């Protein structure tokens, strides 16, 4: 009975590795040392079920009201610290970034579905730094300023599409959405119980799913890289491909590195605009009228907002800050990891602990952002003199793992948001059968690593005939426009 023998051997190996795993995980972490407070867990699995719930970041936010800004959880033997205020996250992840810049082991999304090639999930090691060196010249502040003509072009295309046949902002990519479901913390038991990785493939269906995801992503990223290298004119992919760092990478590793940057750009822009529209439809909308009044005063009705208007459009910057705070696109945060023990205040943090900045909770820290944190209020970012307050920008991460492309993302959001609000009234969709307005909930979302609204209907109605004329006069963007600008940038 070879099949039965294999099965029994697999079960025995799994049982042995599980016992060893738990022995090493649950033994005491230093006599007399006080862990942070946290919820009582179940035997063996601890608090793992809470991680498996839908919208775990919302659950952790509610728990933080009882247990405080630094909360301890036992995730099936894995120590985890949940941070719920900006002060705690800054103190550990930024000030002590030498200790807290690593990533935990992510079996499904990191090792299986990406073969260890997703930059976001890489450990903080020499390989990660190699990829950072390759990408840095294209993501820093100087590079961000060079891309503004291209972002201006893209914003014109956005208005042109909305005027015609794009009444709803849609998901950017199916492959990206599927991967983000896989990368969600707690999505697969193998991440909590790595010993399950030793099961044979028939007893480990996630292995087939991961292989399928890897093939999809590899084909997508390799195909896009190939197209970019064949395109006329310069582009970022060509320059990265020609870099000294790329010579130390395989073609698929380079393709993943370039592709992950593209995914990040899609996420930040498309998802943030989705949430901006949700805010306009579901929250009190006085801020929309206020923004449009300011835009009319500064810009007028005969042209689109331009970069030169930025200094007088502080309120638009405040809107962008507020949407990034109100709905961070990774609300649960990306987990950090410390291999060394540490002490924070009165609390002991064991070695090999996951440290998770719960951005949803951090963005609702009233000591930092003021009251009514669940309400979309751009004014919280503006001081008595009409200037932007120096409040934390939590949506782009902390310390050495902060998003290197944040300046590019913010520039792109500024020109798109300014022009979108200048051009259109944003109204809820209407049910074609009943004629009734379709209500939109600001908590009706698709769960995953990146959280986006469920599909919704919105109508973009030109604010006046002149707005329509201005959009049309700028015309549809074509490939020659892109090539001209890319030649100027590079």
Describe this structure in words.
- By secondary structure, the protein is of the alpha+beta class.
- The protein has one domain: Cytochrome P450 (Cytochrome p450).
- The protein is 50% helix and 8% strand.
- It has 21 helices and 10 strands.
- Strands 1-2-6-3 form a 4-stranded mixed β-sheet. Strands 4-5 form a two-stranded antiparallel sheet. A two-stranded antiparallel sheet has the order 7-10.
- 38% of the residues are buried.
- The N terminus is likely disordered.
Core attributes:
four-stranded mixed β-sheet, monooxygenase, Cytochrome P450, two-stranded antiparallel sheet, 490 residues, alpha+beta, globular, oxidoreductase
- Please report the total strand number as a whole number: 10
CATH class categorisation: Mainly Alpha
Classified in CATH, the superfamily is Cytochrome P450
Gross morphology: globular
Distance between the termini: 66 Å
The total domain count is 1
Radius of gyration over all CA atoms, rounded: 24 Å
How much of the polypeptide forms β-strand, as a percent range? 5-15%
Secondary-structure content class: alpha+beta
What are the segments in which pLDDT stays under 50 over at least 5 consecutive residues? 1-28, 166-183
What do we call the CATH topology? Cytochrome p450
